[in-house]
Amino acid sequence: MTSYAFFSHLLYAASLFVIAMLLTRFMIHRARILDVPNERSSHHIPTPKSGGVAIVVTFFIGVMIMFIVSTKVMIVRWYFFGFVISATLIAGISFYDDIKNKPYTIKLITQMFSICLVLAFGIVIDRLALPYSWAQHLGCWGYFLSFFWLIGLTNAFNFMDGLDGLAGGTALIVSAFFCIITFSQGSNFVYITCYTLFAGTLGFLIYNFPSARIFMGDVGSTFLGFSFAVLAIIAARYDASHTSFFVMPLLFFNFIYDTAFTFFRRLLSGERVIDAHRSHLYQLFQRLGYNHTTVTLFHYVVSIVQGCGALWMIHIQGVERILIFLPFLSFQILYSIIIFRAAKRARLI
Asked: Distance between alpha carbon 218 and the CA centroid of its chain, in Å?
């Protein structure tokens, strides 16, 4: 990349950041969609919860400008429109839910519809580098794997959006690392999309970091989770970088582990897993007496270390890159044991 191109991209990203910041300020002062605290909340005063609108609008401004003026960096238009249309749908439905507070089952059904739409456009994981060669070409199983990946990360991100700055800051870190990784492997589309998400999220985060003046709401959390999940598939299959699909699960490993651990713990305990609760590991961490900033910064450090692991992963060939997950899995198991035992002693669960 020439110095002219570098400064052009930098100016473009800075412009998107300013747009996101101004939109977030507008949502704080003009759009009175409030999150009123209840017994499950970690905040104590009614707080605007529509900040994700700024992220979504900034993203669409960015990708549409890219579509109009930079056709050379685009993926196949069919896949591009599949991504944009499904992301628009999931953002729109989630924004409506922020206003009307629909039951979780309604949210899940609408998410499933959006995911089926993106699959219908052909954005599917059809190959994976696994230990057995027969599993590399997934065939029809690719649709099932893609469906669970998309719905899993969408909801994991949504569930982890429960403390000031946690989800937004993690999205910032992940988008930065995925931007660097895909660019180093020759990306155009995913690289630009990532710094578009980075700029939009940063413009929001400066008002969301503890103590938050605004929350991102479902419109932001489901949109970001869904977008990152789709970008993982696009980067692996349809972008010039052909980045390993396993990079994104590693970047979000702490979110994925916390969500899976909490889901199966509640399921095995006979709890209704669709009911709202405050027993995620990060929530228990905070309820043990640690403030939002401490818990949020802890997860930032974990995310940065996972990002470094992802940078290492792309230099490893073949199935051996899966072994990179082992130290992170060991850490998460240790972390969950410590938090869970402390929470039991404090009678939080």
From this structure: 12
